[in-house]
Write a structure and sequence with these properties.
The complex is a heterodimer of chains A (about 400) and B (about 240).
Chain A (H helix, E strand, L loop, with lengths): L11 E11 L2 E4 L2 E4 L2 E2 L2 H8 L5 E12 L1 E6 L1 E2 L2 E2 L7 H11 L5 E8 L4 H7 L14 E2 L2 E4 L24 H8 L5 E6 L6 H10 L3 E4 L6 H10 L3 E2 L32 E5 L7 H10 L4 E4 L11 E5 L2 E6 L2 E4 L5 E4 L3 H12 L3 H8 L1 H6 L17 E4 L5 E6 L2 E5 L6
Parallel strand pairs in A: 1-5, 6-9, 9-10, 9-11, 11-12, 12-13, 13-14, 14-15, 15-16
Antiparallel strand pairs in A: 1-2, 1-3, 3-4, 5-21, 7-8, 17-18, 18-19, 19-20, 21-22, 22-23
Helix pairs in contact in A: 8-9
Chain B lengths: L1 E5 L2 H19 L9 E2 L12 H8 L21 H14 L5 E5 L20 E4 L2 H7 L13 E4 L2 H5 L4 E5 L5 H8 L18 E6 L8 H9 L1 H6 L12
Parallel strand pairs in B: 1-7, 2-3, 3-6, 6-7
Antiparallel strand pairs in B: 4-5
The chains are: A alpha/beta (about 400), B alpha/beta (about 240).
């Protein structure tokens, strides 16, 4: 496993002439890596009396923790919700291609599907470390089918389900074994949701509220039962109302368990959320904001018409429409584009924008000791960015896994 | 002695840094010829504000020194006296200290040689004076109970053995100590005064630190600045042509 074999003897890499994101600030510091982890150079100096085996000059660029995408439905023509014959290679393709977006870990997302699809697909996508082959899989995000009919959005109505009859057993019967599952999005107003939320939480699975008509009270109760995330805030939920803020009200609720931070996904592609709404959410609760792409299979396919499963999609720049219409067909903005747009729309600091795509998703999943951070001992998954936050290079476990054309010598 | 007076903290720091650079370059160090720089020591390890962390963050991480050539007194050693004796031995084996750079405490101490320290003392364990503990409190969130009360330190005699000594003094709160160190007699209550008997001492200070000196003294040394500034004229780096 990473970092285990003869770590003490492994090569020490020193990334120098850079600014690193640490402790919420961009510091002019060197980044030291050994055995796939971030190394404490002071200990190396005083206890081991060693210097770096190799120095890499970063040209004054920014080194930030690798981005983590907890909601991505596919890309490059691959649809994670399809029970095809080559699920593994589909996931692998996406994992490799998103490296250029600065994503080093992700949660492949499945939308509402019939049980057969879950039973076939879920076991084939295990948790997997990243590397030159692609970004790491942290676990699956199952969005649906236990969601509101009214707020199903693009999810197929025929496959919506409830767990009123047997609560958690119904969920297990639908999904199959949950070993590879990391996040489940459900609507808390569904009957017996609290039992399900508690059971999922007890198994270490993150419960997210979304595609729901729950009011604020129901949402707060769900958080008390264990829910910690909101799926794409504003979308597929009741709009904020000043006498019943709905799920959106969780951002400023004072009825949540003490010390608990509620996280919420935001699609900052410049289309799905009005910048003013983005700013309201960010200003109300900046600590909980998690940037997600919610990307559809058309991600990365380039302009023009594409056939994706049963759908015809027209891609024009950063927007995807149902072909021949003006109806949005889903997001196709890569994660680094989302980060840049988020920075520009909210006027927040570079540090905040970077943390929204790295630290916060890591905190959501309880992984902040090893992911989403450049603290000593964390996995050396990071991106090299220029001052306008364009990805120049991506590293996983201290190994270069992608590099921009211009940066190649 | 030389007394070099600069306008403020930053200029004094820069002057001192350039001087040290030039001394090292002039020494022409090489594979078998090491320039031994002495710095004052103190504070036990394994503390966030330990001297090791301080030295790492403020010095070692910015330069490319071989860690084996950095010797720091280990406040956590089992036998502290043996640790001190070994340190003195290492200095001797390295051929002595070429340049010792230190500061001055408000009570006139050099390194942790508190008032009353023998002027011929060697590296040893010292109990710190209240003044020093108060001065160090800022590194421990102002909590006096957290400040170490004992420290290993090089002795006055150890520093006197160095071939050259540079003392950095900035700030009005050090002014009285500077006065006592250079305008009064050699006195073990103001241990920095011992360097009046060192053949090659240079004091680098800012305006504020001269506040307790006689105008005559200050004018004399300021008048010599054109000479002093020659000492920091850029020399060729060791790396260009050998």
């Amino acid at each position: 496993m990473r970092g285990e074999q003869g770590a003490a003897g492994a090569r020490v890499l020193q990334f120098t002439n850079c600014r690193i994101l640490r402790g919420g600030k961009l510091l002019r510091e060197d980044l030291w890596v050994r055995g796939g982890r971030i190394l404490d150079p002071e200990k190396l100096f005083f206890e081991e009396r060693r210097v770096a085996d190799e120095r890499r000059d970063c040209g004054g660029r920014i080194l930030a923790p690798g981005f983590i995408d907890v909601q991505i439905n596919g890309g490059f023509g691959v649809d994670f919700s399809q029970a095809t014959e080559n699920v593994c290679s589909g996931v692998a393709l996406v994992a490799r291609r998103i490296l250029s977006h600065g994503v080093t870990s992700f949660c492949p997302t499945l939308v509402t599907s019939p049980p057969e699809v879950y039973h076939k697909v879920v076991p084939q996508i295990p948790v997997k470390s990243g590397g030159p082959h692609g970004a790491g899989v942290l676990g699956l995000h199952l969005e649906g089918p236990f969601i509101s009919r009214e707020k199903r959005g693009a999810h197929p109505e025929a496959h919506l389900r409830s767990f009123e009859a047997n609560a958690f057993q119904d969920l297990l019967a639908t999904y199959g074994p949950l070993d590879n599952v990391r996040i489940v999005t459900l609507a808390p107003e569904l009957g017996r949701s609290h039992e399900v939320i508690r059971e999922l939480t007890a198994r270490g699975i993150c419960v997210s509220l979304g595609h729901s008509v729950a009011d604020l009270r129901a949402a707060e109760d769900a958080v008390w039962s264990g829910a910690t995330f909101i799926t794409h805030l504003f979308n597929a939920m009741l709009p904020f109302h000043h006498r019943d803020p709905g799920i959106v009200g969780l951002l400023t609720s004072d009825r949540l368990p003490a010390g608990r931070c509620i996280f919420y996904g935001m699609i900052a592609d410049g289309t799905h959320t009005n910048p003013a709404a983005l700013r309201i959410a960010h200003r109300a609760h900046p600590q909980g904001l998690v940037l997600v792409t919610d990307a559809i299979p058309a991600l990365g396919l380039g302009n023009g018409r594409h056939t994706l499963g049963q759908q015809e999609v027209e891609v024009d720049g950063l927007t995807a429409y149902v072909a021949g219409t003006k109806t949005l067909s889903g997001s196709i903005a890569p994660m680094d584009v989302c980060v840049r747009h988020f920075l520009q729309a909210t006027g927040c600091s570079v540090e905040s924008a970077l943390e929204a795509a790295s630290l916060h998703p890591a905190q959501l999943l309880g992984l902040e000791k090893s992911k989403g951070t450049l603290d000593f001992g964390a996995d050396a998954d990071f991106v090299v960015l220029d001052d306008s936050l364009h990805v120049q290079a991506t590293y996983i476990s201290g190994e270069l896994v992608w590099q921009a054309e211009a940066a190649r010598q | 002695m030389r007394l070099v007076i600069l306008d403020n903290y930053d200029l004094a720091s820069e002057w001192a840094a350039k001087y040290i650079c030039n001394r090292i370059i002039q020494f022409k160090p090489g594979q078998d010829r090491y320039f031994t720089l002495g710095l004052p020591t103190g504070l036990p390890r394994n503390h966030p504000e330990s001297y090791h962390s301080y030295m790492w963050n403020n010095f070692f991480k910015h330069i490319d020194i071989d860690p084996n050539n950095a010797h720091i007194l280990d406040g956590n050693a089992a036998d502290l006296q043996a640790e001190c004796d070994a340190f003195e031995k290492k200095i001797k084996e390295a051929g002595g200290i070429d340049l010792f750079v230190g500061g001055i405490g408000p009570d006139g101490h050099i390194a942790f040689n508190e008032p009353g320290s023998s002027l011929v003392s060697r590296t040893r364990l010292k109990t710190l004076a209240m003044d020093t503990i108060l001065a160090n409190a800022k590194y421990f969130d102002g909590d006096l109970t957290k400040v170490p009360t004992m420290a290993l330190t090089v002795g006055v005699g150890t520093v006197m053995d160095a071939r050259e000594v540079m003392i950095l003094i900035t700030g009005a709160h050090k002014a009285f100590a500077l006065y006592k160190a250079i305008e009064e007699g050699v006195n073990h209550m103001w241990t920095v005064s011992a360097f009046q008997q060192h053949p090659r001492t240079i004091f680098v200070c800012d305006e504020d630190a001269t506040l307790e000196l006689r105008v005559k003294t200050v004018k004399y040394f300021k008048g010599l600045m054109h000479v002093h500034n020659k000492l920091v004229d850029p020399l060729f780096s060791m790396k260009d042509g050998n």
